[in-house]
Amino acid sequence: MQEIIDDVITVLLPQLKEKPFALFGHSFGAMTCFAFAEHVKKVYNLEPIHVFLSGASAPYSEARLQAPKRSHLSDEEFISWLTSIGGTPPEILAKAELTKLFLPALKADLYVAEHYRCTRPSTPFLSCPVSCFDGKEDSPHDLQAWRSMTSGDFTVQMLSGGHFYLKEGANEKYLLDHITKHLETAEMDYL
C-alpha cells in the first residue's frame, strides 16, 4: 500500500499544496483513500475538505480483519466470485484470453487490499466530514468503523444495489449530486 501512496503523492502533492481537495474511493479505493489521507496529514499536515468512502469496511475493523481472503482463490473460483459481485462484464469473464490478461492484476490489487493493516486511530487524525456509502444488497461492511478517522461530521447512506451499486444510473446521479453539493458547501466555507 505504501508504494501506491508514494506513487500517488509524487503526482498529486504539488496540486494538494495549492488548493483544497477531496477524496473518493470505492472498495479498494476506500482503503487507498484512508492510507493516503493518513499519510498526507501525518507527513505534510494536509487534510482533505471531505472524504467519501464506499463499499468497504475500515481497514482496522473486525469485519475487515475477518473477511474471507479471495486473492488466493484458483482462477476459476476467482472468476466465479467476480461474477457474483458484478461489475465486470460477463462477456469479458467468458473469454479465457482476456481473463488471463487482467486476472493477475486484479488478484494483486485484491491481495494489497486484503493484507493492508493499520491500527484504529486512538484519536481522529482528520477534522473534515466523512461520508460513507454502500449497496444494501452488498455483503455487510462495517461503515461505522470509519468514524474514528474524523472529529468532523460523519454520515452513512445505504443505496439500492450490490457491491457495484454506484454503476446504476440513479445511484450514480445521487452520488454525483451529493458529492457536488458537499464540495460546493466546503469550498464556500474554505474561502
From TrEMBL:
Q: Which Gene Ontology molecular function entries are recorded, alphabetically?
A: fatty acyl-[ACP] hydrolase activity
A Pfam family: Thioesterase
Record EC number: 3.1.2.14
Q: Where is the Thioesterase domain?
A: 1-181
BP term (GO), one: monocarboxylic acid metabolic process
Give the top-level enzyme category. Answer: hydrolase
Under InterPro entries, the record lists:
AB_hydrolase_fold (IPR029058), TEII (IPR012223), Thioesterase (IPR001031)
Membership in a protein family: Belongs to the thioesterase family.
Name by which UniProt lists this protein: oleoyl-[acyl-carrier-protein] hydrolase
Native organism is Danionella cerebrum
Name the lineage: Eukaryota, Metazoa, Chordata, Craniata, Vertebrata
